[in-house]
Design a protein that fits this description.
It is built from 14 helices and eight strands. The strands form two sheets. A four-stranded antiparallel β-sheet has the order 1-2-4-3. A four-stranded antiparallel β-sheet has the order 5-6-8-7.
């Protein structure tokens, strides 16, 4: 936001001697009327008194502007009082005027509730499937967006964030992809950092890691049955270091998987017309006992309907195979 340089002498000359309005002065300096009224207040320049005749009490203005979150434009339309007068009243009553970024917020927003388990889940999900940014440096909006051809994914993202701010969803484009955008306040700034690896506070707590992995699984995972009738779990991502970190963390919990596999996808152009600039890596679990241990870990935190259904079908598949072929003790309640 640019700094407006206005001297006390110049402002007194324009406002008191030349009798210019705050609107004209603001136009001259290429700034808002609010800025001019702030400067008049700061320089203790006495304002013209005719506006004081307007019947607008401090309590009424505070309720409209602060409690109800109305803009000066909205108050002007509601009360039939000029916006300049409303600004003068705000300054006179020492009511904090919203800055440029705050004034652009139209829809109500709520703070993130601070739950670390939910925070870990959202970090995992965002590392897999979301772009998180601020449109400009001093913005007070965390902008989250994602494009997907899968409606269930768009619906999940909407469900995750709709309680906290405005959600916009596009119509599907020519290839069937839908864009979703979420507009949140700064309590979601923990999603802004461009992470390559998992935060230590998540790694050092089994519950938080489980929530993180559930979020990443909802974004990038697959839980299904192969054409040969075998249950499996897989994660795919371009970040091999992250997948290796997940694999090592699972090993600490006794959940084993083969080494990562690398797909030669660099240069491949997907159905949406974008070329991959690096190879794609996969982590996969196939063995029944380790699949069941994994499901115990992440199942309480999964939110994606397809993943939840995948776990259910995988468990049924394992139970059927055990009944038919044996090889694993299914008596333990934790695997039921």
């Amino acid at each position: 936001m640019k700094s407006i340089l206005i001297s006390k002498v110049d402002l007194k000359n324009l406002y008191l001697d030349k009798k210019l309005t705050t609107y004209d002065i603001a136009k001259f300096y290429d700034c808002s009327q609010g800025t001019i009224w702030k400067r008049l207040k700061e320089f203790n320049i006495k304002t013209r008194s005719s506006w004081n005749k307007v019947d607008l009490s401090k309590t009424k203005l505070r309720n409209l502007y602060i409690r109800n979150g109305l803009s000066t434009w909205q108050i002007e339309r509601r009360l039939k009082i000029s916006r300049g007068t409303i600004y003068r009243k705000l300054i006179d009553y020492n009511i904090l005027v919203r800055n440029r970024a705050q004034s652009h917020i139209v829809y109500p927003r709520k703070n993130f509730n601070g739950n670390k388990t939910k925070k870990a889940y959202l970090i995992g999900f965002s590392m897999g499937d979301l772009r998180v940014r601020k449109i400009y440096k001093n913005s007070e909006t965390i902008h989250i967006d994602c494009g997907s051809t899968k409606k269930v994914q768009i619906n999940l993202i909407s469900k995750l964030f709709k309680a906290y701010g405005r959600i916009w969803i596009s119509k599907p484009n020519k290839v069937g992809a839908t864009q979703i955008e979420c507009f949140l306040n700064n309590s979601f700034n923990f999603l802004l950092r461009k992470r390559v690896l998992i935060d230590h506070w998540i790694l050092n707590n089994k519950k938080y890691f489980a929530a993180f992995l559930a979020g990443f699984t909802d974004a990038e995972g697959c839980i299904s049955i192969t054409h040969k009738g075998l249950a499996f779990y897989s994660l795919g991502n371009y970040n091999s270091r992250l997948l290796s970190q997940i694999r090592n963390q699972l090993l600490k919990s006794g959940i084993e998987s083969p080494k990562l596999t690398e797909g030669k996808t660099k240069g491949y152009i997907g159905k949406e017309g974008y070329a991959n600039n690096q190879n794609y890596w996969s982590l996969r679990l196939n063995r029944k006992i380790h699949l069941l241990k994994l499901f115990v870990l992440i199942d309480p935190y999964l939110k994606h309907p397809t993943r939840i259904e995948g776990v259910k079908k995988a468990k049924e598949n394992i139970k059927m195979r055990n009944k038919k072929y044996g090889n694993i003790n299914m008596n333990s309640r934790e695997y039921e």
